[in-house]
Amino acid sequence: MIPWRLTFSGVRDYPPTPLDLSGFDSHILITGPNGAGKSTISFCMGAVLYSSKVDAEGLRSRNLQANETWRAKITFLFKNDGLMKIDAPSFIEFTLYMVQEPGQPVKKEFLISKGDHIDQWEETVSYTSGDRYYNFTAYKKDLQYKYKIDPDLFYLIWYQQEVNQFAVMHPEERFRIFSEMHGIDKVQRDWEESMEKLKETEETLGSSELNVKRMKQELSMKKVALDRYVDNQNRLREGGELYIRSLLRLERHFYREKDRLLAIVQQLEAEMEEMGEEQALKISQKESAAESMNAINQEIVSKEEWMEETRKNIDHVETELRSILERMTELDKELRDITERKSKITRSEEEVKAALQKLRLEKEETNKAYDHVKTAIEEKKQTWRKTVEQIAELKEKVMSAEKQEAMHQERLREYKSSHMVQARMDALEQTIDENKESKRSMSQELRQLKEEQVLLEEGRDLSARQAESMKWFRSRQVKAYPLRELIEMTETAKLQDEQLLQAIKYTVFFNGVDVNPPNDLYHVPLMKLVPDRSVTELPDLRIRVREGLTEEEIPHAIKALWWVEQCFKGERISIQNGILIDSLGMRGPQEKERFILSAKALYVRKQEVHRMIGQLSQKLSWLEEQILADTRTLQELNSIVHQVRESEAFMTKQYERTAWRKKWKEELSNEETLRQEIERLESEIGVYTRLQYKHGVLEEQLLEEEQFYKELGKLKDKYEERNELDKQADAKREQKKKENDKSAKLEQEIELLDTKLKQTERKIRKMSDDLESIDMGLRSRKKQKVNCEHEKELAEGELVQIIKEVTDMKELMPDVYSLVLTDNSEGRVGSFQQWQNDRERGKVIWNQARMEDGIDPAAPANYETAKNEFDRLDSEFKRTSILLEQDKERAEQLRDKMETTINMRVLEIQQRFKTYLGHFQFEGDINWESYEDHKKRVHFKLYIKVRKEGHRGSMEDVSIKARGGKVGKGVSGGEESLSSLLFALALLQNIQTAPGFIVLDEFDSALDENRKSKVFDLYVHELGRKMIVLTPKSHEQSYMNRFSKAFVVHHDPIETRSKVIGIAKVEGV
To answer: Which residue ranges are recorded for the region named Disordered (predicted)?
Structure first.
């Protein structure tokens, strides 16, 4: 399978491009500068052959907008020829279609077309991701097994830097690629799988051993459960037998006890009947005596009630007699007092009545006069209080007005008038506005100077419009450069030399194609500048590329310097004496004249800016202080102007203050007159008050005398009442004597009845004793009967309980019951208490056995199951032990096989590698090692060791470098590349398949001309394949003659397009 043609369209910046790769042994060279798009061609080859190393979306054309649909097509034509010729037509073409709608994933379709003539296909097969049979997996398998051109499996395409990576690759990654290329990875996986299986078997064996131990322990536990179950069954049978036997004995005992108690109850009932008849006779006799005693008691009660009524009569007579005697004593005392008071009175009864009538008339007149004067005083006091309040109010107004008048006069003396204050305020406001405007302009100027100072400190000097442009480009994330940041004046230049560039030195260069400039400075797109040569200095203009630029900025500086040169060549545009002249007119300086391109000018400008910042800062500080002082004065005047206006208004109301003073004096005079009138009236009301007091005292004396004459008229009635009370007292004394005699007679009769009652009570007590004796006998026999009946009930209850327990035991343990029932030889042996004890003991043993926790009825079956499981696990453990030995033996065999294969392949590569290195005067060695990490994972490493012939010391791996960013250790870059290429060649030689081509991207980038030709010849000789080489370097003619065809890739940054130019070798030229 020989590559014959490659075409692609819609890929990155390329137009539809065909590449003629025809020729059986024609080697192809694809060259061009870095970044031109050479590697894209190798990516297209990998994409159409479904290489897993190529991301198809990376081939999208960058000229498309985000809302445009991307369509791409790649075809790779092969001629069915060479050592790997397959059973197919003469030509086979592999095609990849890619379509991506906006916002959608890429849709891909692979085609395989076959035919004996190019572009006249006899058969075409399509592979899509959704097809059931012809999908991408089927396409990959066809490439591997049918067409033998899988780029990843057969290492047909070595992408950029891939062929040079073996030297810097980690030894472990190097071994992985080595094992994949030689099929060792399968043997390695078999061994690793055997090791995993061995570990699994070891884990299974450990698990089986644990299971055997666990089952052995469980078996011992089941044996304990079985022993407990057997012991429980024995105790259950023994306890049940003892329990049933004692129950049967107790059953017979309680039957006999029941009959005995029934006979005793019948005998007690006969005795109780005889004693009942005797008791009835005694009760009859006692009832007769009780009736007699009740009659005596009733007579005694009647006598006592009569006697009690007599006592109450006596008490009533005594109370009435006592009341009569007390009233007689009071009357005697009153008669003595009235006689004594009559001797002290001087007026007669008529004189007393006349004096009382006269006094009442005088008292009425005095009260009327008193009320009139009092009302007049209240009215005067009310008027006086109002007058005092008005005086106080007027006084406050007058005093306040006098204080305010002094204050307002002082204010007007100081500020003259509100008009003058307002005029001064207007002047201050104007001054403040002017100062603020000056401050704003100075602040803006100071800010610009400080920004310029920051730029100058950074070595940059931008004008205002340049700064505007730079900010504009930054907001759009476009890289831009002022001219002075790309070029500078040479050391020999003078300041005046910069005037030649006055018209263009503020130009801004930006990394783009087209923009709308923010101002009228020159804005030059760097992508449209394509210099015809590389220029770093213009001696005539004394300018050069600025020193200290980065690698990214140097190409931009070269373009800018070339652009300046074009301005002075005078083709379409020219500069003469600092004036820019073109076909439309002339243009002078872009900014105010300044020197910005030399270091000396930068220093001078820096000093000037520093001085100007200091002066402006001082002026701004003075302005801020002046504005602050004027603002404070303005605020003070603003608060004062209202007060001045108030003072002017106050002084216009002088007539009000004069009226207040006059009114105040008048009210003071009225207050004095009212106060004198109130004093006069108060002295007058004092006279009436004293006269009222005298009238009251005289009235009290006259009323007492009037009352005495009334009591004196009642003295005759009291003498008559005194005689009547004396007669009543004698009658009550006689009545009391009769009642006492009656009470003594009743007491004698009651004593006789008491004697008779006591005799009857003694007779009744004797009868009661006899009845109590009979009753005690009855109660005794009743109690005996109740006890016997109770015992009989208990016996019957016990018998019922025993019968129930016997029935329960007969149902629960019928075999034991039958055994005890047949063995009845010891039916009467033992006592009742012994049978009870046997019953309880047997019941306890039987219940404990029956209710015992942890007794498993399935213990025998469980033990048998556990015994069988233990035997099974023990047998499995023994089988696993045998299997472990077999897995160990197999793993060891696979390890030996793997190590033998690795050693054999390494030895083959080593021999070739040493041979290849000998062509370049180098010695080399290839070896490998394996080790286990702490996680028991096996790692493999492959070492490539190189040294020059004749050098001593041990060889080290080519990937070893100095640590910590240091240099000086390890092989050189050229030796790394050489060892990688020769190691890759040795690997390719050991691949069993022999494809017809190989693609190498930048495989010679680190080789000199001599080694490059030797390595290429060695690859051609050893591989015998068609070589497709991609390289960015320029080459000697001898190296170029080794290729039949060459393609030059060129990229136009202005149009952002890449194109391929084909060059064919002509024999004899």
So the answer is: 723-744
